Amino acid sequence: MKFAAILDALETSCANCSNEQRKLAEQVIQYLYFNKRDKFDELAMIYDLEGVFQEHYIAEYLVSGSWMPDFRKLTPV
Fold first, then answer.
1. Distance (Å, whole) CA 32 – CA 35
2. Structural domain boundaries, residue 67
3. Could you tell me the CA-to-CA distances from 7 to 13, 49, 71 in Å, in that order?
4. What is the residue-level pLDDT of the chain in tens, covering all 77 positions?
5. How far apart are CA 25 and CA 7, in angstroms?
6. Which of 4, 33, 50, 65 has the greatest count of CB atoms below 10 A from its CB?
7. pTM summary value
8. Sign of the CA dihedral running 52, 54, 57, 63
């Protein structure tokens, strides 16, 4: 699988990621979710057909408050 690392990160809550990788992954997810929703949905159709990861991670981010309310104003990394 070409993007096995992405699937592994999703399935293991990024257990094998460094802190830097975890931070960057969260930034990319947030950017896509708020600014490029069509791309976010396209990737979700590949990696999360049943919506399991979206439900888990979005709830986690919203509950933890780690999603910045002004993230929509940021430019991509």
1. 5
2. 3-73
3. 10, 12, 25
4. 457 888 888 888 888 889 898 888 888 888 888 889 899 899 888 888 888 888 777 777 767 766 654 444 444 44
5. 12
6. 33
7. 0.66
8. negative
In sequence order, what are the residues at sequence separation of 6 or more whose Cβ sits closer than 8 angstroms to the Cβ of residue 33? Answer: 40, 58
If we measure between CA atoms, which residue out of 35, 47, 71, 20 comes closest to residue 56?
Answer: 47
Residue 70 CA to chain centroid, in angstroms?
17
CA distances from 43 to 8, 47, 48, 51 (A): 15, 6, 8, 11
Tokens of 42: 């396209």
